[in-house]
Specification:
It is a single chain. Helices cover 71% and strands 0% of the residues. The radius of gyration is 17 Å and the shape is flat. The longest helix is centred in the middle third of the chain and has 25 residues, at 11-35. The protein has helices spanning 11-35, 40-59. It has one domain. The chain has 63 residues and is mainly α.
Amino acid sequence: MLEDKKRGLPVLETHSKWLHQQRSRLYSIIETAKENGLPPFKYLMHLFEKLPQLEAAITAPVQ
């Protein structure tokens, strides 16, 4: 069995925890869209289009 060297956990267990965290985040985003009267699919598409631009702006060197 493969182990996560940092934590000594089996890789499958580490992956399972990561997957659960990602599902929880996605669920939270979808529920927030619904609570604000937004169509979840369109809201997710908007985020996926805008987040890379935001990340590029944040990581750009300050001049």
